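Margin note: ligand = 5'-O-[(L-methionyl)-sulphamoyl]adenosine.
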Amino acid sequence: MNHYLTTPIYYASGSPHLGHAYTTLLADCYKRYYQLQGDDVLLASGTDEHGQKIERAARAAGLSPEAFIAPLSQEFQTLWPSRGIEVDRFERTTAPAHKRYATAFWRRLETAGDIYLGRYQGLYCVECEQYFTEGTLCPVHRRPLESFSEPSYFFRLGRFQDALIQHIRDNPQFIVPATRRNEVLSFLEGQTLKDLSVSRTATSWGVPVAGAEGHVQYVWVDALSTYLSALSLDGTARFEDESIQCWWRNATHFIGKDILTFHAVYWPALLLSAGLPLPRQLIVNGWLTVEGLKISKSDPSTIVDPRALAGQAGSDALRWYFLKNVSLGQDLDFSAAHFVQTINSDLANNFGNLISRFVSLAQKRLGGSWRQVADLETRDTILLAQAVSTGDAVATAFAQGDPSEGARQVIRLASDINAYFQQQAPWKIGDEARLATTLWTVHQSVADLTILTSPFLPEISTKARHALGLGQASWRQIGQRDHVVSTFETGPVYLRLEP
Ligand code: MSP
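Resulting structure:
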């Protein structure tokens, strides 16, 4: 099966921060999970480089937009591989191939009769690149809204209102969590949708609207179409080509709650107008905050650099902390003390210690290679069955869009294996056959555990598997028992962090 996963494309107006890293980690965790299942996955990310927000930031820095965005886009592009995230397509909205695609996309809307020329008069937040109909302050950035009046092309959004409501009602999994789905439904059912202003003349920093001098595409229309242009390497593939549709058929967008309307209302409406299928799912995450404030480059006091955090604790620690603690759709207030406490407790004391104690005992008492010789007792089969049922629970958590629940199940299994190890006290067992069977039970349950940890903790899981003489993990191996097993001394799996 093919899975197409996308992160939002991040504004190239500042360096990446933890908020950006979280959505990308979540998408990467899914990528690894599907790959474990043997599926093919394409992960797309990128940078959003047009629009007034970028143009103004460049001007403030005394640079041309091109010179301003190039190093920032590069920062995003290099951050992901340095954190063990393999982005398959990194799309920049200024790339010629993307611009060709965005122009072709616009043409489809025009051909459908959904674009007309009018005049936009109203309020706008340049930070959000979003129109507002009322208020004086942007609810997200708390800055005054700017008033604009300019000629603009409009998209007949209202035409798609009923179809959108129907689609969301018929597909309960289209938007998860359900709270976000309900929010979109009440937005759609509570008003008559106004047509959307989709071109700007106040800036020339964008994709030109073909045949309409002075107009560039509204930056969100340009940005949303990267989800399709990222599937076409040179921007020439037709939308209907199998090379695009084989991924698009099963597309999941990972987004933050602040960009829900763009993805759950505007984007599906644009796709319907263009005659293209809708993505399968939107997984909507909450915000990371610091002392209650959204981590955001517009508030420097909130900035936590993911590179600095991972530099001290390791990429896996960064992944684990956020993937486990951010429950589906909820906000998480970041605290360095809670980070250190979680990592030491889960990775050093629980998972890491289990591997070290088990491997050193198996080396000492059984020479690092042995087979199950005595019959399994109930306590052994209970633990082995628990490893398998944890696999089912983790799969359910992913299917429901909530890997954090999966991470909690996984660490519970590690605690249960630790408890078994402690209760059986194999270092006191004199009977050779029972000792071998006890340590075999630990080996096999840890083998399953390392499969389940691998989407969350890729580096640590690989280390642990090497210590157990195991190669690459695959979901199918869960519950498949090897009769002869080994261990290798490979050093500690995770070292405690100093507070
Ligand atoms: N460029 C648009 C997205 C276009 S997608 C076609 C944009 N960029 S952004 O850089 O402002 O935000 C990108 C993503 O990062 C959004 O999903 C946003 O929710 C997420 N985050 C930014 N700050 C965040 C936190 N503090 N916490 C969690 N995610 C947040 O919007």
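The mean pLDDT is 95.
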